[in-house]
Amino acid sequence: MRIIVGLGNPGEEYRGTRHNIGWLALDYWLGDVHWSHNKRFNALVYEEGDTLFVKPLSFMNESGLVVRKTLDYYKLLPKNLGILKKKDADLNHVLTVVHDELDLDFGRWRLATDSSSAGHRGVQSLITHLKTQRFSRLRLGIKNELLRIHIPADKFVLQTFSAEERGRLVNMFASIDIRKL
Question: Could you say which of 1.25.40.10, 3.40.50.1470, 3.40.50.150, 3.40.50.2300 is the CATH number of the domain covering 2-180?
Fold first, then answer.
């Protein structure tokens, strides 16, 4: 089984914001599918073959708990001594997290593995709850000129994309085959 998580924040006020690019990407790649609300994980989920797509319904900074519950349920976290979760487990073949990246120019993307959160609180939540940073991250660039003129990062990520950027998002998403990453 493979888990692909799109990070974002729940609620209408966050719909279409830069911080929700993970959710937007999953919606683009999957099209008009029926997302199920999984109360056990506190997430929207969609299963396709041996892949489970997940949109955590917690806020970004608490998304690690949702992912931990999901991996626990599917018994995808390696254990030491039968019960304790192994620290620094290699989850690259199991988990891919799609999220916004302030350090990349808008429209660019990179795949990262075994890397620190670089200050991204949603990613740090995953590292904390999973006790490893060894998972795949699809980093989607959101940096633009507004950020360069010193808008605080916490305010910038909660802004919606401009009309021009929304058009360019489609090009970025189309250049990525999430099922082959």
Answer: 3.40.50.1470
